[in-house]
Amino acid sequence: MALADQERWDARHRSAGPGVPMPPDAVRGHLDLVPGAGRALDVACGRGSVAVWLAARGLDVVAVDVSPAGLAAGATLAAGTVPDARIRWVRADLDHGFPAADDRYDVVVCQRFRAPELYPALAAALAPGGLLVLTLLSAVDDEPGPFRAEPGELVRAFAGLDVVEHREGGGEAHLLARRPG
């Protein structure tokens, strides 16, 4: 991501109000699928609402984002809610690669960040039986564009995983899938 993108996200995160811990959109109605222990990766975590929710649930979380302001907002949200050791905040430009390439996680979350070149790394980051949780903007019922998944994109990209649920519509695509094992 260009420096201009980081600066734009920093400004957006600085101007936003305090976040609230919340589950990823794709697991609403399926909270029982998210384990209460293990390791989680929150890719493009923004202000950390999902990362803090995962940590409060009992997972050790690696939260990755390009924006130092977003990461700082997440750390503030986590303060007093979860032990400091539960979340590791990592500043990384995902356009330059995947920072946790050799680690395996019980849950991998990515919300509203479309990077098809990272799809293989997201799948590879899952431990056997691990849960992939994706919510992306979608061209289904909306205009296509570079930040929107094409119809069926997620199911095709993650064909090696066992799909738990896949929904597309209203400009969003959701995927819950497990790595076999």
Characterization of the model:
With 181 residues, the protein is an alpha/beta fold. Helix content is 24%, strand content 29%. Helix 1 runs parallel beside helix 3. It starts with a helix and ends with a strand.
Query: What CATH architecture do you see?
Result: 3-Layer(aba) Sandwich
Counting helices, strands and paired strands, the structural category is: alpha/beta
The total domain count is 1
The number of strands is 7
CATH superfamily: Vaccinia Virus protein VP39
Q: What is the average of the pLDDT values?
A: 89
Helix content: 10-25%
Number of helices: 5
SSE pattern: HEHEHEEHEHEE
End-to-end Cα distance: 34 Å
Uncertain segments are none
Main β-sheet, spatial strand arrangement: 3-2-1-4-5-7-6
Query: What characteristic shape results from the CA principal axes?
Result: globular
Strand content: 25-35%
List the helices and strands and how they pair.
Layout: H1 3-15, E1 38-43, H2 49-57, E2 59-65, H3 68-78, E3 87-91, E4 105-111, H4 119-124, E5 126-137, H5 153-157, E6 162-169, E7 172-178
Parallel strand pairs: 1-2, 1-4, 2-3, 4-5
Antiparallel strand pairs: 5-7, 6-7
Helix pairs in contact: 1-3
Task: List the main descriptive attributes of the protein structure presented here.
single chain, Rossmann fold, 181 residues, alpha/beta
